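quick one
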Amino acid sequence: MLENKQKILKFPKGFLWGVSTAAYQIEGGIYNDWSEWEKSEARKRELEKNSKKHANFVAGLACDSYNKYKEDSDLAKKLNCNAYRFGIEWARIEPEKGKWSEKGVEHYREVLQDLKKKDLKIVLTLWHWTNPIWFSEEGGWANKKAVDYFSRYVKFVVNELGDLVDYWITLNEPMVHISNGYLVGIFPPNKKSPVKAYQVFKNLVKAHKVGYKIIHKRFSDAKVSFTNLTNFFEPARKWCLVEVLFAKLADWFWNGSFPRRTKGYFDYIGLDYYFHDRIVWYPPFKKNKNQEVTDMGWEIYPEGIYWSLKSLSKFGKPIIIIENGLADADDKKRADFIINHLKYVHQAISDGIDVRGYFHWSLIDNFEWAEGFDPKFGLYKVDQKTCQRIARPSAKVYAEICKSNIIKISKL
Ligand code: FCB
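structure w/ beta-D-fucopyranose:
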């Protein structure tokens, strides 16, 4: 009976079903600009001021994925994923300027080989916001030499590991690094300088383009992109011209700046969708209805993924959804969240948008940057003491989707 009321939506053959992680958030034991910032007195004072327990905001051993990487890839397999997106940590590979760590690169080779053996397509992130100490001490991404340093790193990785990579992500969400690190100041290097922010933007654009060229020189058919945090900016009132204009401007600036400036230098676009911003004409220019929110207070707005896909589709390249997910410790909302978002992904595909895959953020609970370990994004819960991974009920739902390549939605 129930079956009759359900509609089956089929995804294209060969659709990538995956889960996403990032090195610093899961590996543990990394020494870089973030690990130093977390330990700084300033950070401690700031957390104290907000009555937060410092220990919960230090990545430390994280999920111990450095040692448990085989367990993680087994979990991805259990979810019936055919792909895995993760990152390598620059600071492990080049801990000192110009000195390459054999141990670091050997480790990642083993990680990649393990994934290959398990027949998982590899989506590799080269830079996910964190920098080696020597790099940040020289001024990080605001330094003129940053692009040269990054190119050298990319060259090294391409030579050492490139044969095992299926999809490349040079930079993760560059606009977020710029705004949180150089404007709002909540990520290291904690600056509030529009001038620096613009320098960093220009350097990241260059770094991506050079990275793209390096990868393509070695592997002409490589698939290279960055990830673009793409919000759905919606005018609160469609008849209010100012709100319409502001929403368009926000889309043009936040969603479009990086792809516009790197046009011709990506083979697909990596889309991350988390946010719906309902734009009003008066400060703070955003007024969401928040009928349903995640544990972090982020509005759940599945339709927005459709419009985000639409916004990026104008760049004329296939799109892979590299991140989409929610903090939901009780796992009450995750299964519906996934299905409802996928419904709109399916609609986008039906409307002719070339979407090639969906990666859920995240495989396991992990270190959520400035928010520490509180938000629980995992399909698998991680016991913070033992690092044991325990499936949440929604894992089963996602596993079924990945296996069947379909979602079932209620017709009502
Ligand atoms: C994205 C980041 C990712 C994770 C999710 C929740 O912006 O790329 O590392 O923190 O948000």
